[in-house]
Structure formats: C-alpha cells, structure tokens
Write a structure and sequence with these properties.
The complex is a heterodimer of chains A (190) and B (309). Chain A has 190 residues and is mainly β. Chain A has one helix and 16 strands. Helix content of chain A is 2%, strand content 53%. Chain A has a five-stranded antiparallel sheet with strand order 9-8-7-10-11. In chain A, strands 14-13-12-15-16 form a five-stranded antiparallel sheet, with no helix packed on it. The longest helix of chain A is centred in the middle third of the chain and has 4 residues, at 97-100. Chain A starts with a strand and ends with a strand. Chain B has 309 residues and is of the alpha+beta class. Chain B has a domain at 1-127 and 277-309: BirA Bifunctional Protein, domain 2 (2-Layer Sandwich). Chain B contains nine helices and 13 strands. Chain B has helices spanning 4-25, 64-72, 110-124, 136-144, 153-162, 173-188, 240-256, 266-271, 285-293; strands at 28-29, 35-36, 48-52, 55-59, 78-85, 97-106, 132-135, 165-166, 193-199, 209-212, 215-225, 228-235, 278-284. Chain B is globular and about 55 Å long. Classes of the chains: A mainly beta (190), B alpha+beta (309). β5 (51-57) of chain A pairs parallel with β8 of chain B.
C-alpha cells in the first residue's frame, strides 16, 4: 500500500494510524510564525467510529489503508452473520455483528446498503439514507387526528423503534431517515 | 455574497485607519525593498531566490532587515506595508504571498509596544475583544502543565504525545514547544484574545534576552486572537555579535534538518550596533482584516485569492 504525506491528506483518504484504519475528515496546515510547520488532522477511526484529533509535523507520512466501499444487497441473517451480495458479481460476503453494529435496525432484505471492506473483510455497514419499513407494533391510531400534535412510539419489522404521528397504524409502511432515526412520511403502499 | 467593490472598500478603510493612527503617533511610512541580496537564515522560513537584472536576489520573508538598516541610519519611528513571500506556506491562514504591517518604536520596550499594538487594534476595530496579557510560562503551565522554561525535553515530548502529537521532531526544546503550541494551546484558546510575552530563550529569534524574577527569558511577544497568530514583536536585539552568533546557530539547525544553507545578511550585521534601542512588531495584515470583517480564511480578504492570482 502507498504512503501519503500530510500535504496529500484529503477528506476521505483512508490511512492506518496506531494499527487502525482511519478516514481523514479534516486537515489544517498550521505554522507558528517562528516555528516549524504542522498539520492538525481530524480522523475517524473506522473500527470504533470515534473521531481522533492528531497533530503531525508537515511532511510526515502515513501508510494508506486498503479500504473500499461497495454498494451491496442485504440478503439475510442467520443470527450470527449478516449476508450481503455484490449485485454485479453475485458474490456473497458475510459480516459479523461487530461490523454491522446498530445498522441491523435499518436492514431490510433485498435493500441496498454500503459495505466498507478493510483488507477484504467487512468493517462496517452503512444503510441507505432512507428506508421503508413496516410497522409491527404501535398503539391504535386516533380517528381524525391527521394534522398535527403528538406522536407515539412504533416498532418496525427490524426491531427499530421510531416516533410516528398518532394517525399511523400497525401494518403501514413508513419512510425513515436512517441518519437521524426519524419518521419522514407514509410510504406509498406497495 | 459581498460584492468585490464592498470588499475592496472595507480593506481600503482599514488601511486608511491604520495610516491615520501611525500619522498621529509620528511614524513615517516606508516602502521597503522586497528583493534583496540576502535571504533569512531562520530555519522555519524559506526565502525564494529570483534572478533580477542578472543578480541573484531573495524575495523577503519580512521587511525586517531593510527597516532595521534604515533605523540604523537614524530614520526614527517607521512603518511599512510590505508584500512578503514565504515558500511552502499554503492554508486557511497562510498564503505564500501576503502583507506584513511592520513598525518600530524608538526607546520602547516590549511592554510599551504591546500597549501600542493594543491601541492600534482598538483604533481600527470597533468590536475588538478585550485582550488578556499572559506570560509564555503561565500560558503553557495553565494549558499543558509543563514549565516552558525549565521542563526537560522528555517532559515536553510526553506532554506533546498526551495532546495528540504523533511522530518525531529534532532534539531542540523549541521544536517541542511549537508542537505543544499547535497540538494543545491553539485548540484551547479559540475564544480568547491574548498578548503572550517573555518567550523561552530558545525561541528568542531577534529579541533581546533578559531576566524576569531570576528566570532568563526572551523579550518577545505575540498577539493571538481566537487561536490565530496576528503579530509577533521583539524588544530588538541591537548587539551585532550576539546576532551573528544566532545566525550561525540557525545555519547549524538548517544543516541538521537538511535545508539549504543561507548566508547571514552582512549588511544588517554591519550596522546593527548603530541601531538605536527600539521595539518592533510585524502584524499579518490580511489576518487582521479577515478577523475584523468576520471571515475565517485569508483568501476572503485577498484582492484575488492566491489560488486564483
């Protein structure tokens, strides 16, 4: 793998720091008037998701990390692993619970999502920004309450719980923003 | 989006306001030459050499040496808006070509010059923040826990790593104090306006040395607002022998770091003993302008940004 110097650090570049794959978020050139040049860098540790702030002498370099993001179709889970398929090659990959993390809450079979591989092994899974899921449990809807005011918890087929307006009923499909975990709208009936 | 005309007018107003302040204070504006026969030995700066009229000349990293030679010729209090060139400096707050506002006050020490800097800032910036004065030692102790004058190299290294510094530097205390500045201090002073004074002797640059409560210090200061260094000033060294020794020490650091050798400015050294006692400061004009006008990068106050020039 190539190495990258601080002046090549751009947002999105994947590097290895402290043996962990990281993605550069921000790189600021800083130089005291009478001192050497440094770079203050923000990186996301791709394993833990934590953001690190590190300072490097300008010109220092880090090894690139073999990290690729692939769009894949989610197939199913056997409880231990989650299975994904590359829609082009039909090749299947299994990701463990650690890599999937809380993303399982937004995974519906046949939906596409993004799988991040590190050295060929799934490191993390990112759901689509919007997913449509069925409500399996919620209090009965209140008639006529279609305009505003109030919401109630609703449990989705994946196990996720989101707040929905009072008029939404069990069995309906709703659209959810996976980044905020918030209800967006009723989905058109499929 | 502010129109080009409005932006240029705001900068013009600021320059006029600065000139009015200096006029009132009795300073004379000087057009300093910026393509000179000598570069700077400062290991942290890279002067660019150019060929002009068949001669090798160096684009100046500041008008300092030219202005000091004028002071030695009894110019009296002077100031200059100078276009300075520093190779390899590009970033949010850096441009390889930028404007330094530099001035010298005869008979001042660095404390009097700090008063002057603060008065200028208040004169041209209605909403200037209140400026705290803090010694270099107090600032490092407060934020990093190290004693900037006395902590050992190993203690400085340990503190730097604790504040997220990765990698290695040379074995100079000054280098590790810089690393701590960038990794620990700057991020911690993003909402403060500070005049930091009495640096360590390793960071003296062109300041005279002195002693405060028995602690040897360099009479140097910096104005730092919201983590951005706006100005650097010295109670100036007027001892040619000591200056020559520092130039040689710069050259040996350059050699250690594998940098190109630079000859000391013999014309400056030849007249430094005649320079009257004074204090001088260089202020980044575009940085100040950006801060006053509410921008967070130099490019916003350059007539045409570096990338676009």
């Amino acid at each position: 793998m190539a190495t990258y110097s601080t002046n090549e650090f751009r947002p999105g570049l994947k590097v290895i720091l402290d043996n962990e794959p990281c993605s550069i978020l921000d790189n600021e050139f800083v130089k005291p008037g009478k001192g050497q040049a440094f770079n203050r860098v923000k990186l996301r540790n791709l394993t833990s998701g934590r953001v690190w702030e590190r300072t490097f002498r300008s010109g220092e370099s880090l090894e690139g990390a073999d990290v690729v993001d692939l769009t894949m179709e989610y197939l199913y889970t056997d409880g231990e692993f989650y299975y994904f398929m590359d829609p082009n090659s039909f090749e299947q990959h299994q990701a463990d619970i650690k890599a999937v993390g809380d993303t399982y809450l937004w995974l519906k079979e046949q939906d596409t999502c993004e799988v991040t591989f590190y050295n060929g092994i799934p490191l993390s899974v990112t759901p689509a920004n919007f997913v449509e899921l069925e409500i399996v449990e919620t209090d009965p809807g209140l008639k006529g309450d279609t305009a505003q005011g109030g919401n109630k918890p609703a449990k989705l087929s994946t196990g996720a719980v989101v707040k929905v307006p009072l008029f939404i009923t069990r069995g309906e499909i709703i659209k959810v923003d996976t980044r905020s975990g918030e209800y967006v709208a009723r989905a058109s009936k499929s | 989006m502010v129109s080009t005309r409005a932006r240029l007018e705001a900068l013009d107003t600021l320059r006029t306001s600065i000139r009015r302040y200096f006029k009132k204070q009795g300073l004379v504006e000087v057009q300093a030459p910026m393509a000179c026969q000598f570069g700077t030995t400062d290991p942290a700066l890279h002067s660019v050499a150019v060929e002009l009229a068949g001669q090798r000349r160096y684009l100046q990293t500041s008008p300092e040496f030219a202005l000091k030679r004028l002071l030695a010729q009894n110019s009296g209090d002077i100031y200059a808006f100078a276009t300075a060139f520093r190779d390899d400096e590009v970033g949010q707050w850096h441009s390889p070509e930028f404007t330094l506002l530099e001035w010298y006050r005869l008979g001042f020490d660095h404390h009097q010059l700090m008063d002057d800097v603060e008065a200028l800032i208040r004169h041209c910036w209605d909403e200037a923040p209140a400026i705290e004065r803090i010694s270099h030692a107090d600032l490092y102790r407060e934020i990093t826990g190290v004693d900037s004058h006395a902590s050992s190299l190993d203690q400085l290294k340990a503190a730097a790593s604790q504040f997220g510094f990765c990698g290695d530097l040379d074995e100079h205390r000054g280098s590790w104090l810089d690393a701590l500045w960038v990794a620990a201090i700057e991020p911690a002073i993003q909402t403060r306006a500070l005049l930091v004074y009495d640096f360590t002797v390793e960071q003296a640059a062109l300041a005279r040395l002195g002693s405060v409560d028995g602690q040897p210090v360099a009479h140097r200061f910096e104005l730092v607002i919201h983590g951005v260094e706006l100005a650097n000033g010295f109670w100036e060294l007027t001892d040619a022998k000591e200056q020559a020794r520092r130039f040689e020490s710069d050259r040996s650091i350059r050699k250690d770091r594998g940098l190109e050798d630079v000859l000391p400015d013999s014309r400056l050294l030849g007249c430094l003993d005649q320079m009257p006692s004074c204090a001088g400061v260089a202020l980044g004009f575009e940085r100040l302008a950006a801060m006053i006008l509410g921008y967070d990068q130099l490019a916003s106050v350059q007539a045409l940004a570096w990338e676009d020039a």
